[in-house]
Design a protein that fits this description.
single chain; OB fold (Dihydrolipoamide Acetyltransferase, E2P); 2 domains; 5-stranded mixed beta sheet; 3-stranded antiparallel beta sheet; elongated; CheW-lke_dom; CheW-like_dom_sf; Chemotaxis protein CheW
């Protein structure tokens, strides 16, 4: 029997990933498929997702979110992933980014714990919590989207306790911003449009206004949405 083992404070949380063996991603021999048609409708799949979210809850209680980099004075540039949600361009430090992935189906869960928790996504056979950055940041979900061949993506972020995914409307790529420009944007935040949630400042870049997100505050909010 193939199982998924998840580390939890030195212990192991073992989940039988039956959907990869006998479910729709396996040989489809599971007798429950007759009743449920797809694994995402099965109580076993839902129970595995619940145990996954419980792991995040325990991690939130016992472990600090992130260690700050103490040697910032030597930095000349800072690497950030630039992406779009609706009409807003945002930038997040790449130290929080695991990878950019194609969109995957997001399966909602019964009795959602928060409005920001969209459900779970199956990323290469592993259940990963999916959160709405639009909800966490208080953005307008109905904002217009630019025309053209734009491909939405999933950002896989490294939160304490495990990865989470967040759908975004567009990813521009990883950019190296001068530290001096970032510091100046942060210093001018007061009294500007940069007063939104989890925002360090606004940087004018390539004819765009880019909101610089505070990764520690944002990831802390992401963790709260899972517990």
């Amino acid at each position: 029997m193939t199982e998924v083992s998840l580390s939890l404070h030195g212990g192991e949380l073992t989940v039988d990933d039956c959907w990869n063996r006998i479910g729709v991603r396996g040989d489809k021999s599971c007798p429950k498929l007759i009743e449920h048609v797809h694994c995402r409708n099965c109580e076993v799949y839902a129970a595995a997702a619940t145990r996954l979210l419980d792991r995040y809850s325990l991690s939130q209680e016992h472990v600090a979110l992130y260690d700050q980099d103490k040697d910032t004075e030597a930095q000349v540039t800072r690497s950030m992933i630039v992406f779009r949600l609706g009409d807003e361009w945002l930038a997040l430090a790449t130290r929080t980014l695991v990878e950019v992935s194609p969109l995957a189906p997001i399966h909602s869960l019964p009795h959602q714990r928060s409005r920001a928790l969209l459900g779970v996504a199956n990323v290469r056979g592993a259940l990963v919590p999916c959160v709405s950055l639009t909800e966490l940041l208080g953005l307008d979900a109905a904002a217009g989207k630019p025309s053209g061949r734009i491909v939405p993506r999933l950002l896989i972020l490294a939160a304490q306790g495990g990865n989470v995914v967040a759908p975004v409307d567009e990813v521009l790529g990883i950019q190296a911003f001068p530290e001096q420009a970032l510091d100046a944007a942060s210093a001018s935040q007061a009294g500007s449009a940069a007063s939104g949630k989890f925002t360090r400042g606004v940087l004018q870049w390539q004819q765009r206004s880019v909101r610089l997100l505070d990764e520690d505050l944002l990831l802390h909010a992401v963790m709260r949405s899972l517990t």
